[in-house]
Write a structure and sequence with these properties.
Layout lengths: L36 H30 L6 E4 L4 E7 L3 E7 L2 E6 L3 E3 L4 H23 L1
Antiparallel strand pairs: 1-2, 1-5, 2-3, 3-4
């Protein structure tokens, strides 16, 4: 496999200031092998998985956005947390405080789930630690 990305182009005959190598009179001119097709396509082959994952993520986010309804707790990409008042294809209105409603782009809004799952997990871990300590004290 060749790792040449560019062709080695020799200067034109008679260019001033460039030393010319003289080849023996019956010998063919030496040519560098052209870059293989794989080498040329390598950057595109690297990009394909990233583009695929990006499109999947955008599709999932769009589906989650469609499932939002009036009254849901949402968070914007800027970090504002509020209640969804209205949402159309392009703009979402979010109530962030009593009497304060902001308009944001609809694709900047996502559902806000508080970290209740991690809180219950920490409570379970704490209960396990207490139980382990109690059994260790009994021994």
């Amino acid at each position: 496999m060749s790792l040449y990305f560019f062709q080695n182009v020799q200067p034109k005959q008679g260019t001033p200031g460039v030393a010319q190598e003289s080849a023996p009179a019956g010998a063919p001119a030496q040519q560098n092998p052209p870059g293989s097709m794989l080498t040329m396509l390598l950057p595109f082959l690297i990009l394909v998985p990233f583009l695929f994952m990006s499109f999947r993520r955008q599709k999932k986010e769009a589906e989650a956005r469609k499932s939002l309804k009036k009254g849901d707790r949402v968070v914007t990409q800027a970090g504002l947390i509020g209640e969804l008042v209205d949402m159309d294809a392009r703009i979402a209105k979010v109530k962030i405080a009593p009497g304060t409603t902001v308009q944001v782009l609809a694709n900047a809004v996502s559902s806000f789930e508080p970290q209740a799952a991690t809180a219950s997990k920490t409570d379970k871990e704490l209960a396990d630690l207490k139980e382990a300590k109690a059994t260790a004290d009994k021994k």
